[in-house]
Design brief:
single chain, 2 domains, alpha+beta, 5-stranded mixed β-sheet, 12 strands, Trna Endonuclease, Chain: A, domain 1
Length: about 190
């Protein structure tokens, strides 16, 4: 689809899609960061369709697949429908407000720093390193401590491996919601939900 008039085009690499993604405007970009950072979101597509609501066309910003649910995300504009059918498929419809994105700003800024590292290290991170990190982190551990423990490995690759595990949902870092990423950021194992 063509770029909406007056909006900034931002091109990024979508790890979950293994392709380049185009976002139009800061809000769509911020939402894209949130989608990439959420390990429960398996896949997504930007600008997938228009919804016909009250004889007006409304552009959907993202389609997401999360578990067995498919949802259409609309940024900013309050949408009066909560679900819809397109091409005989059922979708939930969710509006993401500007306030919601503003509240996630620290999270977004942290993942803006994390995603390029994962992208640049993909293909370089060995499964053995990922397993070593998972074995090492049995309780909350600062980034500086993890990197010190694995000092014999290339530091950028170690950081890429830590962030890859975070991206996959195999590690957690709750501090990233409220504090900037630093050497003091704690990473912790994901507890079994069983």
């Amino acid at each position: 689809m063509a770029r909406p008039r007056g909006s900034r085009r931002i091109e990024i690499y979508g790890l979950k899609l293994d392709r380049r993604v185009q976002c139009f405007g800061e809000a769509a970009y911020g939402q894209w960061v949130c989608l990439e950072a959420d390990p429960s979101i398996q896949t997504y597509c930007e600008r997938p369709a228009f919804l016909e609501i009250d004889n007006e066309k409304l552009l959907v910003d993202f389609w997401i697949k999360q578990g067995d649910q498919e949802t259409l995300l609309i940024i900013g504009e309050e949408c009066s429908v909560q679900n819809t059918t397109l091409a005989k498929a059922y979708y939930a419809v969710k509006t993401i407000s500007q306030n919601e994105l503003a509240a996630a700003q620290v999270w977004i800024e942290n993942w803006e720093r994390i995603l390029p590292i994962i992208t640049s290290c993909r293909g370089l991170v060995a499964d053995t390193l990922l397993k070593s990190i998972e074995k090492l982190i049995t309780e909350p551990m600062q980034l500086s401590h993890i990197e010190r423990e694995l000092a014999t490995s290339e530091p950028t690759i170690v950081r890429g491996a830590i962030f890859t595990l975070l991206h996959r949902g195999q590690l957690r870092a709750p501090q990233l919601l409220t504090e900037p990423l630093s050497f003091l950021t704690r990473f912790e194992p994901v507890k079994d939900k069983s």
